[in-house]
Amino acid sequence: MRTTSELKAFMKQRRMGLNDFIQRLATSNTYACKNPDVESILNLPPPQQEAELMNANPSPPPSPSQQINLGPSSNPTAKPSDFHFLKVIGKGSFGKVLLARHRSDDHFYAVKVLQKKAILKKKEEKHIMSERNVLLKNIKHPFLVGLHYSFQTTEKLYFVLDYINGGELFYHLQRERCFLEPRARFYSAEIASALGYLHSLNIVYRDLKPENILLDSQGHIILTDFGLCKENIEQNGTTSTFCGTPEYLAPEVLHKQPYDRTVDWWCLGAVLYEMLYGLPPFYSRNTAEMYDNILNKPLQLKPNISNAAKHILEALLQKDRTQRLGHTDDFEEIKIHVFFSPINWDDLTAKKLTPPFNPNVSGPNDLRHFDPEFTDEPVPSSIGCSPDSSLISTSIKDAAEAFLGFSYAPPSMDSYL
């Protein structure tokens, strides 16, 4: 169970993106950086050598990447002034998510607004375009957030998404510390269904964590934030990019070895463990110790869960990915595990199973399940503005060109507006 001090430290670390986290790790003098295993993982030069390298080769200013034009796109008439932006409901490295009401029909949306300059500075434009591409492939899956359309101004990118206001799974775990097993089983089954669907499209999710799992107004799971998805990973395909969230990194990712779809099943095991016990399976405040735990420490399971739950956690959190549940037959192996024997999968995907928890929201304006850290923040006046074209600098124009192909509207866009 989480203590108050553990929870505060955990939340602070979890809110930090991996890039910012590694930057802080690399420039600190903590045990984490002096640990040989962690140095090997991060390929960190000794501090003195790092300082010399930085002085000898100062980082050039961010420059626009090659033009990106991925997938089908259109040139919609959508613009920021179409919306009345009401509340900040989320924040990330590159921008904010806002509750917005469309001015013409009063429909509510979650609009993700990203700063192009910030994306280009960290060279993350491919991840943003990957998120857009994955959203385009969501053919009405019940447990994946839907994209209505996207558009851009010279400075910002806008994703117009389903508005989901039952709260982050992370938020509910903070409040309740852990869940009873039937509730954890229900959520993990819906998560597994969403991951299985992505895998069927040859997409590996790679960043499963409670912050990226939302509850809808009825209490069903909605998976969101596809920025770290990797496309075109077939059944036996692998990739090797070092990315994810520290608490949930699989051993093969830490080892910088090629990894496959089973990285998502490791993350499912970590999230299930957290739902049952209140913290991720190998968590430590000391990052070096946590990484060492993930790589070397045997999984420890307390006796307050069923044998079926213990068995699936051991199978999902298998350090050798070739022995991990899901390695041979992907989602089909997950479905037939005894832990999920109470689940009728057809009824699950048809949303015929009653969720174990009802958020009891009264309507779109009910923000009780959003963190006040977000909702108390004023909505930036610049969110709904487009700068005068005569004032646009060359760098902003370059940023705009880097995201050609971003804008998207479905053929039946009128039905959404």
Automatic annotation (TrEMBL):
Key words of the record: ATP-binding, Kinase, Nucleotide-binding, Phosphoprotein, Serine/threonine-protein kinase, Transferase
UniProt xrefs under Gene3D superfamilies: Phosphorylase Kinase, domain 1, Transferase(Phosphotransferase) domain 1
EC supergroup of this enzyme: transferase
Domain Protein kinase: 83-340
Database matches in InterPro entries: AGC-kinase_C, Kinase-like_dom_sf, Pkinase_C, Prot_kinase_dom, Protein_kinase_ATP_BS, Ser/Thr_kinase_AS
CDD domains: STKc_SGK
Binding site for ATP: K121
Residue span(s) of domain AGC-kinase C-terminal: 341-417
Superkingdom of source: Eukaryota
GO molecular function: ATP binding; protein serine/threonine kinase activity
Reaction(s) catalysed by this chain's protein: L-threonyl-[protein] + ATP = O-phospho-L-threonyl-[protein] + ADP + H(+); L-seryl-[protein] + ATP = O-phospho-L-seryl-[protein] + ADP + H(+)
The EC number(s) this enzyme carries: 2.7.11.1
Disordered: annotated segments: 50-76
Ranges of compositional bias, category Polar residues: 66-76
Functional summary from the UniProt entry: Protein kinase that may play an important role in cellular stress response. May be involved in the regulation of processes such as cell survival, neuronal excitability and renal sodium excretion.
Family membership noted in the UniProt record: Belongs to the protein kinase superfamily. AGC Ser/Thr protein kinase family.
Protein name, entry field: Serine/threonine-protein kinase Sgk1
Source organism phylogeny: Eukaryota, Metazoa, Chordata, Craniata, Vertebrata
